[in-house]
Design brief:
Number of helices: 4
Order of helices and strands: HHHH
Strand content: under 5%
Helix content: 55-70%
Oligomer: single chain
Structural class: mainly alpha
Largest sheet: none
Radius of gyration: 14 Å
């Protein structure tokens, strides 16, 4: 599978995770934040994949470590800076 297709697949799954999180949040389920975290992981992994960067198993569930792998010029960093979001 190409990097673009793999990234797109991760983004589709992240979108589904967020949709499920919304449903759970409306039910006041304590599991909604977990799905949000899962979606965030998949989004960062999709960006890494699109950049041609492989996230090893040692960083697979650590968003902070995955973000550290992003190139400085990556748009995700720019968006985070613009909105004052600390990605680490």
């Amino acid at each position: 599978m190409s990097a673009d297709k793999a990234a797109a697949a991760l983004l589709r799954i992240a979108t589904a995770d967020l949709a499920d999180a919304r449903i759970l949040a409306n039910m006041r389920s304590r599991n909604a934040p977990y799905l949000c975290s899962q979606a965030a992981e998949k989004i960062v992994k999709a960006v890494l994949t699109a950049e041609g960067i492989h996230a090893s198993r040692t960083v697979a569930h650590r968003i902070d470590l995955m973000v550290d792998l992003l190139p400085d010029a990556n748009a995700l960093r720019d968006v985070a800076d613009r909105f004052g979001i600390d990605l680490t």
